[in-house]
């Protein structure tokens, strides 16, 4: 975790928590466009306002507004199907590949519109890298997995520059010592945890500013998970990290702030320890105490 807490605007407009819904009913009107906690940050990396995402006619994200500060680690949690991955994928336009998906609202990275039609999406995804649930190394050598991005982005003119980037990235992903003697063997021959670290090395090889992680540990055993969590803490010194996780323990261990999603709404966002010890919204409290999810 980043030792420096992100600067959260203390005067930010914070909506009063809606009254608890009657019974278990979720009322869209109560939650639409609102949240509780501290959704806004000074000079944010991402400024996201009134974001809606539709799959065909179905609205999966319901007017969410949130800032994400520089170099913070923010965790997205919530029950299955609440929209965590959909919202995450808006941040580097991974949803573009889904034909029926439509994104509305203002989404800015460093003050520039992420969905500007003139924006170079390849460049955006180099700045906002992504690590997926299942490790997905290319069917290439360990070296070429990491060198692929720098090559297509023209980041190295000479072989020695490329070698440096590969070594630095593998070191950054905590994998160098395990693979330095077999860089020309297939990436797919590594263990699951090593493959996930290789994917992290691949993401950081193009010097991103943000790393999106969509349940990066769900396919890993506890030891490999612990290694990735340590890595998140190290990476947070240099990158903004946004992690979707089903594990509340993981969110508590790795993140500065936690955002709780429910049926397409952002219900609450706050410093992680506050969300887990003194949640402000009854839906958050129900989730973290295991009443549903
Ligand atoms: N490609 C798609 N086409 C149609 N609907 C989709 C698609 N992807 C997601 N959805 C729907 O959007 C909603 C949000 O899904 P999403 O995967 O973002 O949730 P999630 O919180 O990440 O879930 P999980 O924790 O189970 O991964 C769900 O109702 C889901 O069925």
From TrEMBL:
Region (Disordered): 1-34
Lipoprotein is among the record's keywords: no
Record Pfam families: ABC_tran
Residues annotated as domain ABC transporter: 46-288
Superkingdom as given in the UniProt entry: Bacteria
SUPFAM superfamilies, per database record: P-loop containing nucleoside triphosphate hydrolases
NCBIfam families per UniProt: 3a0107s01c2
Record PANTHER family: ABC TRANSPORTER I FAMILY MEMBER 17
Name by which UniProt lists this protein: Phosphate ABC transporter ATP-binding protein
